[in-house]
Each structure stands twice: as structure tokens, then as C-alpha cells.
Amino acid sequence: MSQITYLKSILCSDFLRDTYDSLASNPVTEHEKFVYGTSGFRMHNEKLDIPLFATCLITLLRSIYCNEFIGIMITASHNPPQDNGFKTVEPKGEMLPQSWEKYVTSIANSVKKGKFDEFIANFLNVATEALKETTVEGKELKIIIGRDTRQSSERFSSFCTKFFNNILTATHEKIKFIDYGVVTTPQLHFIVRKHTIKQQTDKFDILNEYFNEFFQPFLEVMSNLKSSRFKKLYIDCANGVGAVQLEKLKEIYSKKTKQIEIELINTDYDDYSKLNVDCGADFVKTNQRLPANVNETLAMDGENLFCSLDGDADRIIFYALDANANFCLLDGDRMATLIGEYFMEKTPKSFWNDLKLGIVQTAYANGNSTSYITDELKLDVKCAKTGVKNLHHDAVENFDVGIYFEANGHGTVVFNDLFMNKLKESNLPELSLFVSLINQAVGDAITDMFVIIAILLNLDIDAKTWFSKYKDLPNRLVKCVVPDRSQFETFDYERRLAKPAGLQDAINHIVSVNNALHKTRSFVRASGTEDVVRIYAESHSVESVEVVVQDVLKAIKAATA
Ligand SMILES: CC(=O)N[C@H]1[C@@H](OP(=O)(O)O)O[C@H](CO)[C@@H](O)[C@@H]1O
Ligand SMILES: [Mg+2]
Questions:
Q1: What is annotated as the active site (predicted)?
Q2: Does 139 lie in the same domain as 110?
Q3: What is the count of structural domains for the chain?
């Protein structure tokens, strides 16, 4: 059966028609415009039925196109409890190719009351265009789903099960559908990749696969140490899925080693209203203060180490309090620089003669971190557009060892074969063990946590020494609601606005009059995950930052009035 004939047989099923009719007649989403953005669809859960339907359909197309496992992750990461979202995962664990985002966006926006025939025509056009390069005649659809702990996640997960089971009944084709239940986003990426690499169609024991891959090397790092300067590791789980997985990890960990006790904080994932509230990586980074349930005195003690995960455990932020109880934020910029420094420290200079080690950041990286990378570490640095898929791509394209982190704590390290071969030839066992801790598929809070602890222990430094490597410029990131954020168009890696007309000139003027010490920077861009535009400003003093932010806010109001 040709792919399009096959799709037609699915589309004429009663299930699809009935589902369509009920979705299209929901008044809540009648005038909604859907966009598959920075990290898939993400909005209030009550508006997400159509986006989920479109996500299932694009997963179907992608599965036909690749003829391999495709994943769907149900999560809204750091967003408030009432939100949710979806993104698809490629066979090797990557994100949906950017060229396909327009297809899924178009499918979602063509669901309109009484327009089923038009919807089908549009879908078949999209399918013909999307599938035109593939010659694969998919015989078995292979789908994997996973979800976070949100209240609405179970409902969306049930819909996926129903959708794919009904396709099976409608077409009598073979479908392999695996539901991994409550998992972190990086675990879902990892497991889809595992299925593809091992060509396994039966469900894995995720605990075994994931923890063996990254946790065993960490235990080895710990067993190589004579002593540890840290007595206790406190992990803020944001009352989300990180708690579910780390509770299992902690149980294994405490049986294997007595070095560094682990305490999990904010683990109430059963109380849906608490997710990301006053805790988690986003709260800590945005507010630059301790999350709920962290004791100030303990945070001042250098023998304790503190970190926070976000709601789907793909980001992590470390922190401490200094002797005067000032907050020391150890964010993505700090992790990227620490990892860069560690690579330099553990290798002879000649190792890099024919290899490139570099760091990828976004415009939100603190200006002083960028100066530290170029002036002190003497490493190459590249700026990418917001969204880890952009950083990942640029790290792979530009470097043999590419370290990439968003300032908010989302990132990892990628290595190419050239580096891996050289590492095998060189006698660097400590670095080889370190490399095996890294989840190259995607930024992962749990593996990033192992990576950072391994470095701190190996360099024998505490959080405050790490913090003292350079001084952040005072900065602020604020949101502004505008009538239509799609009016905001950027260029130069989102550092400058092309539209609305005149606004960039106004920002340039505000920056220039506040730039006495040549440290001031500000930019505005539309968020891809929330209905707001974001304003970032940094300068030599807190006061100067505040003036810039307030003036830029006024300029935005004037430009959008
Ligand atoms: C300034 C900022 O932190 N933006 C975040 C946020 O994207 P926005 O497009 O800015 O809404 O969510 C993304 C997904 O989690 C994350 O990749 C990104 O870094
Ligand atoms: Mg996240």
C-alpha cells in the first residue's frame, strides 16, 4: 500500500472523524492560534486537545518517514502546574527537525468546526510534501510515549494510547506502542535512542538501562576518591518527576556508597498544585534566591552542596550562600566554564593541536562569563539562538568537543569521533571515565549533576571557590505582555530586533546613555513558550540595570500601543 493510500485509510476511520468533530467544536480553542515553538506545543492544558491531536498525526508521519521509533514527551517543564505541552523525539534522541515544525503547526491550525474535508485535504497535502523524500515503505509504526507528573499528563497520555490503538484497528497494520509512564524528558530521549541503536522493540527496564549507563561511571568516580569534601548533597526536585526518578536512584546509591549523603527536597509530586511553585531551577535562576525548604545555615556550610532541577528534570542550577548570606548562583554559564576548565586541566596542551574545544551560549549568557571564556580559558565561544536544539546543532557543527549550556542550566557536551579516537589512543583514564558520565543526546539534570560533582571532587573545590572564578554582571530578565508577540522579529542570534519598526533604535539609545563602563547590554525577543516578550539587561551596577529595564519596558509599550 502506498503511504498516502495508507494514510487515507486511517483518516476515514470513525474514530478519527468523531475525535475531529469533538475537538473542532470546543469553544475554548475556536480562535486559538497554535505554534510548535522552541520546545513543541506548550500552553494551558485546557487548550491542548487540538495540539495533541496534531502531535499524534505528525508522529505518525515521522514514524512512516523514518521507519524507526518516534517518541512523544508530555510535559511543560518549568511552566506552572495548569500548563502542559508536547514534543516529539527523533529515533536518535534529537528534536523534531525544524523543517517539520511548519507541518505540525499547519495541521493544528486547520482543525476548524464543520471543515473536516478541508482538514483532510490539508493533511494529505502536508503528508505528500513531508514524505516526498522518503522511499521507506514503513510496515510497522513504532511509537514511544512518556509523561511528567502533571495532573493533565495522564489524560493526554490516555489520548495517545487511544489514538494509536484505533489506528491499529482501522488499518490492521502493525503498531508497536510503548508507554514508559512517568519519566524525565532526558530519559525519554535516551530510551528512544536506545530502542533505535539496539533495534529492540520490547520495552526496556528504564532503571537498568539509564542508571547503568550513567550511574555506574559516577559510582566509579566516587570509589576512586580517598575522601570527599562534601558531606551532603541536597537536591530540590521542584515537586516534579525528578523526585520520582531520584527516589529510585537514592535507594541504589545508598546501598553502594557511603560518600556524600543525598537528601531530596520538594518531592511532593502527588500534590499537583506544588509543581515548580517557589522551587526548582527556574525559580532559583529567575529570583536568584534559595528555593522553599532550604535552610540558610546549611546553605552557608561549604560541606553541603545544593542544586535544583526543573519540572521535567532537563535543567539544573547549583547554588550556595557566602559567609554574609549573599546568594551565589551557579548557573549554566558557570557549568559550561567549569567543564571547559576541567578539560583543559586534564589534558596536555598538545592534545588539542588538531582538535577544537569550544563553548556555545545564547544571548542570555552573562557578559562576564563570555569574557572569562575568551580571556581566561582562551577557548572559542559561539552564540546560538535560544532553545537547546540550536545550541546542540552549533556545538556539533563547530567543535570536536562542544560544550553548550543555556544560562538557565540546560545543556550538555557533545564529542565527535575524532575526539573519541584520540581519547582512546591517549592514556587519560580519568578523562575517559569523566566522558562516560555525559549524556550526549540531550541536556539532562541528573547526568549534569553527576558531571559537576565529579569535577568539583576531582579539582577539590567547593561551590564558593567555583563561584569566585569570575564575577557576574548585575542582570535582570523580565517578561512583558504585548498585544501580539509575533510582531517581534529578531536577527543577529536574537540580539537585535528587525521589527517592530524603531524599537531597536530606542533600545540602542537607552543602552548608550547607560553605558558609562562599556558593560551595558539589553535585548528583547518574543518567547517561544509563553505569550510574552522577554527583556534582558545587564550592566555595571544593579541601579543601571533597573534604569535600562524600565526604559526598555516603556519603549516596548510605546512601540506596540
Ligand atoms: C530565557 C529563557 O530562559 N528561555 C527559555 C524558554 O524559552 P523562551 O523561548 O524564552 O520562552 O524555555 C525554553 C524551553 O525550556 C528554554 O530552552 C529557553 O532557554
Ligand atoms: Mg525543562
A1: 77
A2: yes
A3: 3
CATH number of the CATH domain containing 545: 3.30.310.50
Answer yes or no: do 375 and 500 share one domain.
no
Per-residue pLDDT of 108-132, as tens digits, reads 999 999 999 999 999 999 999 999 8
Question: Looking at ligand 1, which residue's alpha carbon is closest to its atom 2?
Answer: 408
Q: Note the pLDDT tens digit of each residue in 342-367.
A: 999 999 999 999 999 999 999 999 99
Atom of ligand 1 nearest to the CA of 408: 3
Distance CA 254, CA 233 (A): 12
The Cβ-side half-sphere exposure at 404, using a 13 Å CA radius, reads: 30
Q: Which of 39, 63, 77, 544 is catalytic?
A: 77
Residue nearest to atom 1 of ligand 1 (CA): 364
CB atoms within 10 A of CB 196: 18
Tell me: do 483 and 448 sit in the same domain: no
- The answer to whether 77 is a known catalytic residue is yes
- Cell numbers for 371: 569574557
Domain boundary among 433, 467, 501: 467
Verify that 184 and 214 share a domain, yes or no.
no
Residues 214 and 344 in one domain: yes
Which is it for strands 533-538 and 261-265: parallel, antiparallel or unpaired?
unpaired
Range of the domain at 481: 475-560
- Contact present, 88 and 59 (Cβ < 8 Å): yes
Q: Please tell me whether residues 438 and 295 are part of one structural domain.
A: yes
Identity of the amino acid at 26: N
pTM greater than the 0.90 cutoff: yes
DSSP output for 129-197: HHTTT------EEEEEEEE-S-TTHHHHHHHHHHHHHHHHHHH--EEEEEEEEE--HHHHHHHHHHHHH
Residue nearest to atom 13 of ligand 1 (CA): 387
From 414, 440, 467, the end of a domain falls on: 467
- Residue 278 marked in a binding site: no
pLDDT tens for 216-239 read 999 999 888 888 899 999 999 999
Domain shared by 446 and 373, yes or no: yes
Question: Does residue 167 share a domain with residue 254?
Answer: no
> How many CA atoms within 13 Å lie on the side-chain side of 168?
14
